Automatic annotation (TrEMBL):
Keyword Protease: no
A Pfam family hit: MazE_antitoxin
Annotated ranges, domain SpoVT-AbrB: 1-43
Protein name: AbrB family looped-hinge helix DNA binding protein
InterPro entries in the record: SpoVT-AbrB_dom, SpoVT-AbrB_sf
Keywords: DNA-binding
SUPFAM superfamilies per the UniProt record, alphabetical: AbrB/MazE/MraZ-like
NCBIfam families: lp_hng_hel_AbrB (TIGR01439)
Amino acid sequence: MRMTSKGQVTVPKHLRDLAGLRPGSEVRFSFEEGRVTLSRADAEERPGKTRGDRAVEAIVGTRTVNRGLSTDEIMRLMRGDA
């Protein structure tokens, strides 16, 4: 695997799946004993996460626009009423 001139690498799909990483996932890098480690950032560590953020994360990457939910159901999810 090679790093681009912009410092980008592609995380192999099987590793993304194992780590639960999806497009838009927040990640953390650390450096210990000469190794760079990538890990998923926990939701608790991200200050200011709103109900809307959590609702959007619940439907991101589901392969359908709204999983068959009605507009009213989506609005309830966004408001945190569900």
